[in-house]
Amino acid sequence: MPNTSTPTSPTPGTATTSTATTDAATPDAVTPGLRTVLHPVSDLARAKAVHTALLGVPPQIDEPYYVGFEVAGQHVGLLPSGGPQGLTSSLAYWHVPDIETKLAQLTAAGATVTEAAHDVGGGRLVATVTDPDGNVLGLLQDR
Predict the structure, then answer these.
(1) Contact 57/68 with Cβ under 8 angstroms?
(2) H/E run at residue 119
(3) How far apart are CA 118 and CA 113, in angstroms?
(4) Distance between CA atoms of residues 24 and 40, nearest Å
(5) Structure confidence by residue, pLDDT tens digits, 24-68
(6) Most Cβ neighbours (<10 Å): which of 2, 10, 92, 109?
C-alpha cells in the first residue's frame, strides 16, 4: 500500500535543526571533532596499566617515550614526564582539516599561538593556542 501521509510539523517545544549556513560553517571552518587527548604521567608502567583497565584494550603504541591507545575513534596518549612539550596537565587536540587556516581564525578571534604547526611524523601536524583565559587548545591535522 502506498504511503499517502503528509509531512507533519515538529511537536511544539521540540528543537528543530536549521539548515541555514554562515561564513563560519564553510568546510575549512568546520572542526570534525575532539579525538586525541594526551596525559602527562610520572610512572608510565602504572599509567599504562590503569588506562588498559579503563579502556579495555592494550596500547597500540608502546614505547618508552609514548604509549598510545585507540578506542572508539579516540586516541589517548601517555607522555612520561609530560614529553617534549613539558605538559603539566592533559591536553585535548581538535582534529581540523587545515591547521594553518584554523590557526589564522583562532588568532583573529583572540587566541595566541603557543606552539606553531609542525610535523610530528607521518604527515601529522600539531599546534597549540592559548585562549584569552589561558586554556591551551591543541590542533591536529593528518595529511
Answers:
(1) no
(2) strand 112-119
(3) 12
(4) 33
(5) 455 556 788 889 999 999 999 999 999 999 999 999 999 999 999
(6) 92
Q: How is residue 4 written as a grid cell?
A: 499517502
Q: For residue 113, how far is the Cα from the chain centroid?
A: 17
Under 8 Å between Cβ of 59 and 68 = yes
Residue 133, sorted as left (phi over 0), alpha (psi -120 to 50) or beta, turns out to be alpha
CB 93 within 8 A of CB 36: yes
Kindly report the pTM of this predicted structure: 0.74
Neighbours of 29 (CB within 10 A): 15
pLDDT in tens, 77-119: 999 999 988 999 999 999 999 999 999 999 999 999 999 999 9
Between CA 114 and CA 31 the distance in angstroms is 20
- Strand bridging mode 33-41 / 74-80: parallel
- The average pLDDT across 111-137 equals 95
